[in-house]
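ESCALATION

Customer reports they have been waiting on this structure for their group meeting. Please prioritize. Original submission:
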Amino acid sequence: MAQLVKLVDYVSRYENDLTRYPTQFIRLKRYQWKRIKNQWEHGFDQFEEQAATMLEDTQEDAKWYSLLFKKWRKRRDDDFVDEEADEGPDEEVETDLTFQAAISERPSSMEQLKKSYSEQLFQFQLKWASSTLYDRSRVDPKFFSDSLLKQLTQRLPDSFLLFYYPIVKVNKAPIELDIVLLSPTACYCITVLEDERMAAYIGSSDRFWLKKFGEQELKVLNPSIALNRMEKVISSFFNGAKVELPIKKLIISRNGYIDYPGTPYEITCIDRKTYDQWLTQLSKNPSPMKHTQFKAAQSILDYAETTAMSRLFDAEESAEEPIEE
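Update from on-call: job pushed to the front of the queue and completed.
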């Protein structure tokens, strides 16, 4: 499962420590899968018993993080921690630092179990890509059902790092990129064409392409423009960090067709006919994560924009809300 390092301008765990969280995610994913697979194989009774134990563990984790959060807030206000003052009831603070897979109904097959687990892991990925211990970003609900985001995360290996429409700052100006996918051996800059199902895109070197859908013909902005701009920005980041990683430019249409007779050699077009084949081939990449890949990801994060709200601010606002009688 590819790791969602940056989602638009949301705060991300990976921004705090890029060398720690990728390996932690892989260990967590494998451990949780082994646990629920073992539960499924050994019967529903044991499954329920272990689920109850899991709930108790989660509650204990929540209490620990709540106490930690409480002490951190007091340090900020007083520059010291009064241990005796912390002995009261713990404040309830939402914690999403841990991942505990839980299956509410016993799946009838291993495939159903894998699907359910993968969906839970995807939801957890969105939390890691939008929150830290002290900050959180408000996630647009559309991302929870974004089929392309799901496919890229769920079908690609753990060793792939994904930047999904990140916003970066170049010369003090924010620039919204499209999709940047870092494999251990290459960087893929991806622009997506997805409007009507079965639409046909006629490519050219002009500023506009022609989109045909049924009897309709419309002009759409040449996707190569955004793609070339993205490559230029990423290249500047790599050069500044002395990263040597080949950059490949892709135009993708999962539900349509691309006819681009004069496709430049440095651009690859992937449409409805070749998308599954491309994704399958990419998913078979056996390479583990590499140092150059981490440097490349960090060079992008160094310029990434982040919009977030302090969890402390959320907690204080909730405490100050008047109680309706």
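Sent to customer with the following note: The two ends are 49 Å apart (CA to CA).
Escalation resolved.
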